[in-house]
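Hello everyone,

My group is preparing for a crystallization screen and wants a predicted model to guide construct design. The compound we'll soak is zinc ion. Before spending weeks at the bench, it would help to have a computed complex in hand. I've included the protein sequence and the ligand's SMILES below. Output in structure-token form would be ideal because that's what our pipeline reads.
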Amino acid sequence: MKKRANKALELDDPLCCCEYVDRHGGRSHMAACCCDCEDLDEACDRWMKREPQNPDSLSRVAATVTDRLRVPWISGAKKVDLSLIPPLILLPILLHIAALHYLLGIIVLTALPGMVLWYYYFTHRKKGRTLFFLSLALFSLLYMYYLFLTEVMPRGDVTNLQLGIITLGVVLTLIALVHTKKGPGYVRPSPADTHSTVTYHSPPPDVDSAYHNGSRHQVVIANRTSPAEQGAEPRAVAGSVLEKDSSRRNWCPFCKLVQPPRAGHCRICGACVLRLDHHCVWINSCVGQANHRSFLLTLIFFLLTSLYGISLVLRSVCPTQSLLTALLYCPDVYSQSSSALCFTCAWYSSIVTGGLLHLLVLQLINVSYNVTEREARIALRDKTGRSLIWGLIIDTGVYSHGFRANWTEFLNMGETLEPKALKPTDLV
Ligand SMILES: [Zn+2]
Ligand SMILES: [Zn+2]
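Reply:
Good plan to model first. Here are the tokens for the complex, ready for your pipeline.
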């Protein structure tokens, strides 16, 4: 009801860049962010009178604050997600603390990935959406570039060509990221799915649709390609039963549609994604059929830029040592605050690069075996795939057609999907 009223309000008199529709459905202005907050007044009143607070009054005040925290936008002021902010404040502070002394450096650079991992598992368990990781990833990239310009360049050891290569790397990473954010390729309901809402039920909880997607799909195809062994009528009946069974198993109760083979439902995005690989918190989006290639490209551009940047920084702050030795032992680096900060950032970048390099290796192996991250996880859980080299390689054997054919399929997938025009707000 409120939504419809807001729509009418917007159509009658469009919002200016500083106006917005607040959480109660009323029209508000950014300049009025401190006015007329009954919840805050009530909480202050109770605090002054030393009366106990209402149990939900603080959460109502927090909801009002987050609702009023906005930035001007063309079609009305946009809400700022609070999870964007901590990385912007914490990262520079922590890196500067770590640059004070090597012992502080060890503590901060050990605690920082630990805290990020803890927050990752915390949000992942709650299946909540957060912009914290995207903010941390983007800000880390841009902050490292800023420090390269302001701290490393003035030392005079980096040529303009080397700066140009680093700048090109940052730009290419951002372009590939924008492309990845265009979307993973969502499953669209077909007219046949309308019938499915009445007929089919959700699959049993102990059976995962992803694995059966693959095997069932193959059984149906096998039926179609062996006419000599079966008569026309039984074959049609068997095919129809199997297809119905397959549809029942591939039915998504959340999106109310039948998933095509290899599609999966993402509980964080709340949508079914074609050839779902995984939900990546660092880009705040799923990786699927439409954006898997650009996701890999983003990783590759980032890693190349980062490795080259680290090597330039270490050569500048520790010219007497070889690159690997410099990262472990660099005498007198803490004698100057500038060189200490550069060295700390080289270490921070190395930790991030190490994590992403591991992810890239896993992704390249998965593509070589034509397995998605989701299928590999399910095969491990159900013990249906071959696990090689301590679980680094998971071969389900369902879709693999050989190394070359798998890569050809990967590089050509997504060609048929409709490209989506990207709005600036889609980046988050
Ligand atoms: Zn779904
Ligand atoms: Zn997702």
